[in-house]
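Supplementary Methods S3. Complex input for the S-adenosyl-L-homocysteine-bound model.
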Amino acid sequence: MAGYQVINYPRNAQQSWNVKKKVYVKSYGCQMNAYDAERMADVLAPEGFIETQSAEDADLIVLNTCHIREKAAEKVYSELGRLRVMKDERRAAGGDATIVVAGCVAQAEGTEILRRAPAVDLVVGPQNYHNLPSLLAKAKHAPVVDTEFPIEDKFDHLPAPSREKILSRGVSAFLTIQEGCDKFCTFCVVPYTRGAEISRSVAKILGEAERLASAGVREFTLIGQNVNAYHGEGLDGKTWSLGRLMHRLAEVPGIARLRYMTSHPRDMDDELIAAHRDLPALMPYLHLPVQSGSDTILAAMNRKHTSDEYRRIIERTRAARPDIALSSDFIVGFPGETDADFEDTMRLVHEIGFASAYSFKYSPRPGTPAAEMTTQVPEDVKSARLAALQEALDDSRNNFNRAAVGQTFDVLVERKGRVDGQMAGRSPYLQAVQFDDDTVAIGDIVSVEITRTGTNSLFGKRVGEPMTAEKPPSIGANAA
Ligand code: SAH
Ligand code: SF4
Ligand code: F3S
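Predicted complex, serialized as structure tokens:
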């Protein structure tokens, strides 16, 4: 019989629809995960979910996980242990909680997560979170795992956040332009968890950029696992590089600053280096992971460049933009790394003078070639090398920051400072800067003379008048 199903709504249904459900998204790992966490909140907003900052408060808890090192992945299971207790307690009291594992552990481990953590309702990979509403509906009946790499582009299925939401997230925003990796460094899980490299089209990136900028965003950090391998369809139908894309993005009204990460040395092309010379909006900061200073180790890592090639890229970039601040990632204790290899890394660090850096002990990851190598380095050797490297990198960073004292920088005001009457933002070189002056607005760019350095910030005083946005964002100095 053709017809319709009569549903007997409970009398209080209307009322319960008005009660907003709460979602807590906890993100681990890289900027891409931070960006995805916001997109998950955007997908859930039309379903009636508002964001909360604590699991205790939430009806739906999403752990947006990272698989890059063992520690990061194991953290998820301890968190799931705590959430299981919470869920049991709630059920005993007649309530409930829905638990979702998203991100790269979800992609890598899939059903294994349900086996180890039965309290989990849904496991969803990084390419499927646009389907969260329908997956959650299915998961009401039985646990669901979705780690397929879909044909459709998730970016085409993501709702736009409201203007208020954009503003609440701040004047500096991440914007994914590229995702995935085809490079297969022998230590790394990313090609398996994020899939093949794809670039979004310039038209779609511009659409998102214009929407964010018109709501008050003033700075974009363009993100991708290999962001400088960007090769998206341009406005003229031809393939555009990252350099070309940035020239176009710099024209978006309201946008004052552009940054990008993470880059691979092999993809530092002339157009991108020239953009550092020609494009004032492109900030003088380059995060270019080298991982090791030893050619033997670089080859074993499948990085496909030597340490001298890296040095030459840095020279060319410094020739284009002499004041550029450099940053890198390092791995110590990769299989087969000798004392001499490690000394090569230390030499590179001393030669280049990094403004900041991340360094890690090599962590064997399941399914990667390096994990199978028989020349694993003992834990105590890794620890000693990491300590020595971090000391050198700290010195290098402190030297860079100390050199700022007495200089005047443009600071993009991002928030109120820790102390009353203080405002905080970032220098062009990505240093955190605090200054005494609460008359300026968030989103303004102000000249600040640096007077001293602290542990994590520079301190200074405002000089001259602030440069407000072309169309001043309606985001006051009181916004958090
Ligand atoms: N796409 C970027 C890096 C992504 S992962 C690039 O090509 O450089 C971020 C950093 O984590 C890497 O640069 C590396 O330093 C570190 N990393 C990745 N896998 C690791 C592993 N198995 N053990 C330790 N550190 C690792
Ligand atoms: Fe991982 Fe290498 Fe790809 Fe970076 S380039 S994401 S380190 S495989
Ligand atoms: Fe981690 Fe996945 Fe990013 S493994 S570093 S969250 S791409």
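Residues 1-17, 471-480 have pLDDT under 50 and may be disordered. Residues 379-402 form the longest helix (24 residues).
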